Amino acid sequence: MNYFELVEPEAVMPLALRLLETYGLRGEKRKFLLFQVMILWEMLMIVIPKIFLGYRSQDLVIRGLSELLFQLHIMIRICISAWHRFKFEGLVAIIRRVYKKICSSEGDSTMKADLLNFNAMINKQCKGYFLYIMGCVSLFTVAPLFQSLGKFITNRRGNATEKEEYITMMEQEFYGLDIRGNFSHYLIYVALGSIAFFTSASFFAVTGVIMNCGVRYTMSMFRLIVVRLNKLHELPEQHIREELRETINLHVDALRCVKILEKIANVAMVIQIVDCVLIWISMILYMRNNLSVDAISLMVLFVVLTGETYALCDLLTQLTNESLAVTRAIIDCQWYSLPLDIQKSLSFVLFRAQRKEGITAAKFFFMDVERFGRVAQTSYSIYVVLKDYL
């Protein structure tokens, strides 16, 4: 488990950067070839069979399409992250510069201790999230395998009145192999497909870790601004101007981080919203009439997608609130007792801090918990209309 350990307490998002390097999205250019190979493998094992090899019956088309949408959702997210990987390096550089200054010998010891505790907490959260996703895909892969193994033993003993079909991880055909009737073909499918499923899950987890780290580190910068503003009136007059200049620079850096995150994620956010609506509706339509062991894998996808989308919206709500907290900190910092030139500088910061900051869905609307509720309500409304026609 050394891979997940926080070796350097002052390091900025070490696990996220380690994961990016592992999957070919950071480091030497030749490492990027590994990422391309993994994307190609997913296409061959999941996407192409689902699109071109058809389904056993019309009843299973909804399940197959919902799984396909979920897979395409993951691939689009990781490809967007790959496209913007250099922008993410810029975000990391800004945060490193801020942290290096605070953790230096001249920095505030209280702030330094808070940052070290924050680093340890974020590392634990990202580790837990990554292992949670990999645990879900293990259930997704292992449960059908054990069920099929039980059916194979039953078929071999001749206890079944008729030969039972083996359960696949996803609803798909596999290049002419009889993966539901021939156990050898089934094992080939599991061996080759499992690599693609675990790769896809790790891509899902990596994009989640990147977003979580980027947003939380940006939130920590806004918190540092609030702490500094709260202490501003306690400083000697000869130190106030220097401290205010540092605070303003920190606010500028925090806003730059938000802008970088917005550029990286705004397209991915609108895709996530659209995919959530389509996937939720298709999954519910299938599980409404097919709630059996065959639907376990689909239920795992449903729980993972819903939980991840809600957690993301909640996190982005916190980001907006932290940026607006700077406004309250300026109002409460006893600005009226400060020199006139300091008051004027604070008024400019106040004007800028009142603007709502956050991550949008292609600049149409801000992503937050309220938006998640509206999306869920819209999905249910569409489902109510469609259920009588399908």
UniProtKB/TrEMBL annotation:
GO cellular component, one term: plasma membrane
Location relative to the cell: Cell membrane
Pfam family of the protein (one): 7tm_6
Domain of life from the UniProt record: Eukaryota
GO molecular function: odorant binding; olfactory receptor activity
Record membrane topology: Multi-pass membrane protein
A GO BP annotation: signal transduction
Chief place where the protein resides: membrane
Transmembrane segments: 32-55, 129-146, 186-215, 264-287, 293-313
Keyword Cell membrane: yes
Keywords: Cell membrane, Membrane, Olfaction, Receptor, Sensory transduction, Transducer, Transmembrane, Transmembrane helix
InterPro entries in the record: 7tm6_olfct_rcpt
Protein family (similarity comment): Belongs to the insect chemoreceptor superfamily. Heteromeric odorant receptor channel (TC 1.A.69) family.
Protein name: Odorant receptor
Gene source species: Aedes aegypti (Yellowfever mosquito)
